[in-house]
Amino acid sequence: MLHLILFLFFGAICVAGAVNLLVQSHPINSALSLIAVMASLAAEYLLLGAEFVAAVQVIVYAGAIMVLFLITIMLLNAGKEERSKGSRVATLVGVPGVTIGAVLVAWTLIGRRSTTHSVTIGALWGAPNNIARLLFHDFLLPFEVTSVLILIAIMGAVVLVSRPEAVARGPRKDG
Amino acid sequence: MRFTKINPQTRKSRLTRNAPESRKIKEQRSKGLKIKTTRARAPASHENRLSITAFVIISLVKSVAVVFVLLTAVAYSVWLERKVSAHIQNRWGPTRVGPFGLLQPLADGVKFIFKEDLTEPHVYRPLYIAAPIIALVFAITSISVIPFGNWVDIGPWGTYLQITDLNIGLLVVLGITSMGVYGVALAGWSSNNKYSLLGGLRASAQMISYEVSLGLSLVGVVIMAGSLSLRDIVDAQGGVFWGFIPRWNIFHGQTLAFFIYLISAYAETNRAPFDLPEAESELVAGYHTEYSSMKFAMFFMAEYSNMVTASCVATLLFLGGWHGPIFGPPILQALMPVFWFCLKVFFFMFLYVWVRWTVPRLRYDQLMGFGWKFLLPLAVANIVYTALVVAWRA
Questions:
Q1: Does the distance separating the beta carbons of A74 and B185 come in below 8 Å?
Q2: What is the predicted pLDDT for the residue at B234?
């Protein structure tokens, strides 16, 4: 009972934050709504018993990535968005499209009801040692390959950002 | 219930180490209940047995007590800071209000409340008001998983001296502390003032940078203990080497990690010599330039509260938490773990003040270079070294 109430509460915050993200015209408010979405998602993970995932969600997404978003918005000093009426095509295609998508998802979920079953708290392998076993034992190679992939992305960003003559000369000395 | 669930495998192995024997202790507490026993672990019969009412009452009492103690500690840290800084500079510090100026925090609090609360017309109001609240809330919340001592039986109920024990306690502390950046960053931005904005940007950049080396410096300790629960980490540090050196992590191969943590924690809490975000010689007062009255006081309290939490984590992870020599009559034996814990935390708070008034402020590029080019590689090297040693022993 308590878990259901908490689930609905954080689910409501999550959806409200997501809607607010789109409605707000100021980038900072949108970024803050996204933080609310991520924090409430972490709470939902916690309710499922996935404690480690919840903590990582807060530390990585809400705590680090969104701070970088916020710094970027502050540095660019982005002002309010200008209101536009929106294109008629978007309204004509978008509203039926979203409706069809929602109906499809709901239909699939209801149709599969017999094969799915509810999960009790703690039934999932959420403890850190279980996740560590998965990452460093069962899926060690994919995990390490992913880190190489991220390294490539970082190197690409460095190359894109630095000026060509600076790359030719090597790292700057004056810092 | 999920709340009281305890992982039996990790717990049992450490049950025997340094567990004070349970004895009858007769002590009338202010509530009129008796503290009966103290032991490292909950008795088996107590696990999963608390009724929901008892759980709520105990949790409420613990939360109120911990927040009260924390806020008092924050107020008296300010007094300590003023007093120690004065003596370092050959002055007296506060002496007029109460004996040794001990009532000065109270006077300061009253003054903060009665000061005019200015709100400049050019600020972005919703975030300007929310920022100090965010800073203070996350600073206080992070104390919730810090354990202060062993299991105690009070009357019919027993509890850990800790608001809640999670098996990811350390990550919770890190997560909540990382959310505290928003208070500072939003304060700087919403003030709509160039000094505030620069202070806020510096603070967030600095806190993110040093959070990396801070987090990595803790990994060595986690590897040694094999758990992320703060209680398990403390229990792993019980006992002594060669009869007199405590098995604290600082003497147990994590000396380097301890100093990395200490330096990163100073940067993380924006304290001197890393107080660039509020460097008064260049930024007026940084992110809280536009704040006055209680809103300013909330930033102030958040800073000191973060210092207390950082000191608690340093104590738990590197100085063995509440482990220390225990002797004397039973009442003393029950209270000594808490005393040792508080003494170690006090030592770190004193160190904070001592360092602030001794070491000059760094330049901003020095600060970033030090964090990324020196501390981070050192922290990674420490992890590799610890992992190799642990793997070799196993």
A1: yes
A2: 84
Distance from CA of A36 to the nearest CA of B (A): 11
Task: State pLDDT tens for residues A70-124.
Answer: 888 887 766 666 666 667 777 788 888 889 999 999 888 887 776 666 666 656 6
Of A59, A122, A128, the CB nearest to B178: A59
Q: What is the pLDDT of residue A152?
A: 93
Is residue A165 over pLDDT 60? yes
**DSSP states of A65-103 as a string?**
IHHHHHHHHHHHT--PPPP----HHHHHHHHHHHHHHHH
B26: left (phi over 0), alpha (psi -120 to 50) or beta: beta
Query: Is B182 within 8 Å of A35 when comparing Cβ atoms?
Result: yes
**Chain A residues close to B2, C-beta within 8 Å:** 49, 121-122
Query: What's the rounded Cα separation, in Å, for the pair B289 and A74?
Result: 17
CA distance B180 to B193: 21
Query: CB–CB of B345/B311 below 8 Å?
Result: yes
Task: Give me the residue from B179, B181, B201 closest to A75, CB to CB.
Answer: B201
- Binary contact (B167, A128; C-beta < 8 A): yes
Residue among B174, B185, B228 whose CB faces A128 most closely = B228
β-pair partners for B343: none
The values of phi and psi at residue B199, to 5°, are -60, -45
Residue A65 CA to residue B182 CA, distance in Å, equals 12
Distance CA B153, CA B37 (A): 6
With CB atoms and an 8 Å threshold, state whether A71 touches B204: yes
